[in-house]
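Q: What changes when magnesium ion is included in the input?
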Amino acid sequence: MTKNSNELLINNEQAMVCLGKLLAEASQGEGIIFLHGDLGAGKTTFCRGVLTAFGHKGAVKSPTYTLVEPYHVNGQTIYHFDLYRLGDPEELEFIGGRDYFDQKSLCLVEWPSKGKGALPQADMEITLNYNLPGRTALLYAVTDYGQQLVTATVAAYIQQQGD
Ligand code: ADP
Ligand code: MG
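A: The predicted holo structure follows.
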């Protein structure tokens, strides 16, 4: 299967939340998603969209200091990582890094570059870029499952946003 990438225009915060929601709906509650992009690019906003779609109520903030925040909603487990402050990829071992990825869960990883070598392969990688006042999102499939996610998410997004 050919893996390809798709770039979407994400014009405002609400559209970023929508993208997360559509990924959640495509995901069957599992998979590993890497989120690339500078500070402020919208990674956490995207994660909020995912979590809200699963039924999480309340705030979502980057677990910058704890590195990972687990969410258990409606029988579903979602791990939200923010590895920005990870000094060394090996530190992931101390928080039990590997174990998170072995379970039937959805793992959202901000700053995966900081964990290079200590993280499993992603199913799909998303790169957010500034395109002021909005953003762009490049969705890239790594695995076959990731390709399903990209295809379904992009199709649903284009349908919803008419872009
Ligand atoms: P990151 O986690 O990448 O550092 P955040 O998700 O915290 O970024 O978002 C930073 C700011 O960007 C927030 O104020 C958010 O509302 C805004 N934002 C997110 N997505 C978009 C978008 N597509 N267009 C415009 N602003 C956005
Ligand atoms: Mg963040």
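Observations recorded in class: The chain has a mean pLDDT of 92.
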